[in-house]
UniProtKB/TrEMBL annotation:
Keyword Ribonucleoprotein attributed: no
Organism of origin: Pseudoalteromonas caenipelagi
Presence of the UniProt keyword Isomerase in the record: no
Keyword line: Ubiquinone
Protein name: 2Fe-2S ferredoxin-like protein
GO molecular function: 2 iron, 2 sulfur cluster binding
Residues in 2Fe-2S ferredoxin-type domain copies: 7-90
Alphabetical list of PROSITE patterns matching this protein: 2FE2S_FER_1 (PS00197), 2FE2S_FER_2 (PS51085)
Gene3D superfamilies registered for this protein in UniProt: 3.10.20.30
Amino acid sequence: MSDNPCHKITMDSHDEPLEFAAQSPSLLDTLEQANIEVAYQCREGFCGACRAKLDEGEVSYNQEPLAFVRDGEILLCCTKPLTDIKLTLL
């Protein structure tokens, strides 16, 4: 049993799911490590450039974002999954 649980990240634009390790700072960092190009600017939840649609699962914010986020969307730069998730990159 691991102290650092991994959650799966599934995206319709990629065939294989990714694993999010608990020590990763954000979903954005995990996607970048997998060489998945994601638009971003501030990396702190101010600009909203890294918005994605959360199709399934639950996430938590490292800090509450200041950027406007629509219902069903998340900011990848300041979010971690609480469960396995499914995303659509915008």
